[in-house]
Amino acid sequence: MQQVMSPRFPLKDGETKKDIREYLFEQMYRFNGQPTPLFMAEMAKEIQSRSSEADPDEMFQSFLAVLNKGAHERHENIRSKKCPPDDYIVFGGRAFIETLIEAGLKVIILSGNPNDQVNKEADLLDLSRYCDGHVYGHTDAENFSKQFVMERLMDEEGFSGENLIAIGDGAAEIKATKALGGLAVAICSDEEVNGSGVIDENKLPILLDGGADCVIADYREPDNLLNLLTGK
After folding, report:
1. DSSP conformational letter for 135
2. I need a surface site. Which of 11, 128, 149, 188 has the fewest CB within 10 A?
3. H/E run at residue 60
4. Which residue has the higher pLDDT, 39 or 126?
5. Which residues have CB under 8 Å from 188's CB, separation 6+?
6. Domain segments of the chain: what residues?
7. CA contacts within 13 A on the Cβ side of 80
8. Domain 89-230 has CATH 3.40.309.10
9. Helix, strand, or coil (residue 207)
10. Nearest to 54 by CA among 64, 114, 62
11. Pairing between strand 165-168 and 183-187?
12. Is the pLDDT of residue 55 over 90?
């Protein structure tokens, strides 16, 4: 995202490229979990306010090109067995999912990315088998709401907010979970070294402001984590 967005931002008086990077990080995490076109529309307005031209559709297509290139590289690495799938999952994630399944909990993947892409990646990462068909992305970016999807699933599956635990790194799912009466867990994983146990300080304030009930760096000690989240 930085690669696409940073060069498009004219500097204001007294502003540096570092200021732009920090601003974009803040906005990226604020919009994380929401459809990318919404983020692009907001950034286009900011660029235009700086007396420069910006087309949100063109920006979105440029971002998709970079995103698809990265996804293609991940897919090839997995298919060729150059990297195991777990290299692309937050540390301890698979063990934690299996712990949830063993405890009788249902696992749902919900992303702000396109539905086909989310399901393809879930298959490649060998995560779909845990979800019993509950892998969701958007089919219409402009009319997508994580809270709406959560509400629909709660109605279809017959559970209430007190039985909802949502783990995510975007403010959208944190706010939606709190609005529905669930437990909102912020995953602030280290983007540079998977499994370092270090919390990403860039994500932290955005997710805390969104109402996160607790913060984790990754999914180490899955049994203890599940006991903590379920109050055992």
Report:
1. E
2. 11
3. helix 56-79
4. 126
5. 169, 199, 200, 201, 203, 204, 207, 215, 216, 217
6. 2-78, 89-230
7. 7
8. no
9. helix
10. 62
11. parallel
12. yes
